[in-house]
Every structure is written in C-alpha cells, then in structure tokens.
Amino acid sequence: MIPDAIRSRVLAGAGRDAELARLRALLDRLATRPPASPRPALPLTPVETPHGVAWRRSEDVSPPPALARVMEATTAPGTVFLDTETTGLAGGTGTYVFLVGLATWTGTGLRVTQYFLGDLGAEAAFLAAVREAVRDAGLLVTYNGRTFDLPLLETRYLLARAPWWGEALPHRDLYPLARALWRARVADCRLATLEAALLGLDRGDDLPGSEMPRLYFRYLRTQDRRVLPRIFTHNRWDLLALAALAARADDLLGGPDPRHDPVEWLAAARWLERREPGRSTRFYEAALDATLPAPLRMRAAWRLGRLWRRAGRTPEALRLWTEVLTDPDAAPVGLLVDLAKLEEHHARDLRAALRLARLGLARAEQDGGDERRPLLAEALAHRVHRLERRVARSRVLGGPNLR
C-alpha cells in the first residue's frame, strides 16, 4: 500500500498542475483579445509666462446654422465671452477659479480657448496667462459676471498680488438683460434653461455646473485626467450658449422683427424705455399693431402713452388710453391714474377724472402684495376727495367742467 503521506503529496502536486493549466488557458484567452481602447487624455498646450507654465486648450466650435447667422450679424469685432468654473458657488477667498473659458467669433464659428489650473501652486502662471489673453478685448461679455465671475477673479488676482485687468475692460453682464427680456417665458433664467427654451441647444448628458467642483477635486486627488473632458465640455457649452444668447438679445433689440414674438417686443420696449425712448416707442407701437391679449394690450398702451406724453403728444396719449380701456377691472392701476390726470388737466372732464380715480382707488385698496399700495391708495383717496369738491363746485357755479 502507498503510505498516506505519499498519497497526499501526489494529490497536491496534481492539484497544482491543474491550477497552473487553468491559469495558462486564461492567459492564452486574454492574449487573443483585442486590446481595450484607452480613454484619450485631454490634450493641453503649455503656455510660458513669467511665473512658469500655464495650460490651455483651444478648439473651434460651429454653432447651428441659424444661430451662426445671427451671431455673424450681431457680434462686434473684439468681443470676448468669458465663463469660469470654480471650486465653489459661494465665492470668498477660499474659492479658486480653476478654469477660465474665453470665446471669440471668427466669422464662421467660435474659437474657444480654455485656461486650466492643473495645480493650485501654479495659480500665478494661470492668472498671468488669462491676463495676457484678454488684454486686447474690446468688450467682455459674461452671464452674471458682474456679481460672481469677475469679483471672484479679482479676489484671486489680489491674493496672488497680480495686476487686476477687469476695471480696464468694457464689460457687459447679459444676466439683467436676459431677465428683462425673457423671465415671463421661462421657469427661471439660468443659462441652461434659456438656451433650451430660446436657442434649441441640447447638451445631451452634460453634467450640471454644481458637479464641476467635485470633478476638479477628484482630479487634484488622483491626477486622473479622464475627468477633465466633462469639465471642459461643460464650460464650452456655457460659452456657446452665452455667445448665442447675446446674439439673440441683440437681434431682438435691433428692431421689432416678425421673427420674434410680440410679447418679446414688449419686453424689449420696457428695457429701452429709459435708455432709448425713441426705439422703445417703435417697439410698443409694433406690439399694439399685433395681436395681444387685452391685459397686455392695455399695459403696452399705457407705457406707450407715457412716452408720447413726454414727447409732447398728449392728445394722442389721451385717445389711445381711452380706446384701450375696455375693461377697467383688468387695467393697470397706473393707467387709471394717468388717464384720470389727463381727463382732469387736459380734457377738462372732471366727471371722467373722478370716475377713473374712484376705480383706481378701489383697485389699490383691493390688490395686495405690494408695499407701495397703501401710499398709492392714500394719494388716490386725496385725489378722489379733491375731484369730488371740484365737481360739486362746478355744479353750483354751472361751469363748463362737467360732461
């Protein structure tokens, strides 16, 4: 008989041989498979600065043809669109700007150049490269840049003891204009919301901006460049949307064009009232010639009449306001008040003025939610009492002030 010890060694050797054979077969199968395609690393170009090397990436982006035509017609030479990615949305000295995207119109598309802070210790070189890139800009365009991007960049330059360039460049923050033109049409005025509603742009699986800090911190921890394309792509989308939205706004403000909705004409007219009253008047007039819901029509007529009155066209303002006042309950209180003033002082119709003042007072006392309404109601009550006294005197004296 074979001793148990020898039998165990033989069985163990056979087991090892079987395991080795299995591993050899596995290696053979792996060797015959095609190699997996590695995810491409994002190509970055070094930029020499007095403070060391900075990194940037440049590419040409082609907008959809319809947007390209508008951008070609409205984008002034020397315009630079700027958007940043940061380590936080609250700002402050602990927040870094780690990506600055710049875009310029080349005549056929956008040239997008993105400066990347690959190492927090290289911030001085990063800031110097950005400063050189915007040095010759004729106009800087941002979205909410006046309150976020530029103050945060200024803080980084201040902490790096580097010259700040922002005060030397003309700056246009598109956010206030976008709110004025389109807030009635969209749920909010975030850039991504407006680009989908107005420009027809689709970002696909692009991550929201709130995810960018997480990806950047992951890169700093691991130096894994595979996370960078998502960051750069998001910033590129923001730049394309910013440039296209600026062109869309300028195209709208260029004149009441049938390609735009009459409701947009009203928003443009309101934006231009104090800036360019003549152009504002043209927008209001075009909107009134179009089809508008009655409440919007009365509001447009009210504001147009105010412009006419300032321009010395008081009789026309009186006729317009009288014609559109088909439903006093839906009319703006301001229209009732202004028409009451014209009826009293221009048309000399005290009864009509009193009737309108009473309607305005009732509306002011009913409507809530506006802290100015109590003051308006008090002023209207005073007007009503004064007109009542004037009407009473006219009755006694038999004057011509009653109709």
Structural overview:
- With 403 residues, the chain is α/β, with parallel strands linked by helices.
- It has 3 domains: 45-253, 2-Layer Sandwich (Nucleotidyltransferase, domain 5); 256-331, Tetratricopeptide repeat domain (Serine Threonine Protein Phosphatase 5, Tetratricopeptide repeat, Alpha Horseshoe); 333-403, no CATH class.
- It contains 15 helices and 7 strands.
- It has a 7-stranded mixed sheet with strand order 1-2-5-4-3-6-7.
- α5 (174-182) crosses α9.
- Mean pLDDT is 89; it is low at 32-40.
SS elements, strand count: 7
As laid out across the biggest beta sheet, the strand order is 1-2-5-4-3-6-7
Order of helices and strands: HEEHEEEHEHEHHHHHHHHHHH
Please, what is the CATH homologous superfamily of the largest domain? Ribonuclease H-like superfamily/Ribonuclease H
Structural classification = alpha/beta
On the 0 to 100 scale, the average pLDDT is 89
The total tally of domains equals 3
| CA-atom Rg in angstroms | 34 Å
Question: What is the approximate shape?
Answer: elongated
Question: What is the CATH level 1 assignment of the largest domain?
Answer: Alpha Beta
Strand content: 5-15%
- What kind of sheet is the major sheet? 7 strands, mixed
The name of the CATH topology of the largest domain is Nucleotidyltransferase, domain 5
CATH architecture of the largest domain: 2-Layer Sandwich
The helix count comes to 15
Low-confidence stretches: 32-40
N-to-C terminal Cα separation, in Å? Answer: 137 Å
State the helical fraction.
Answer: 55-70%
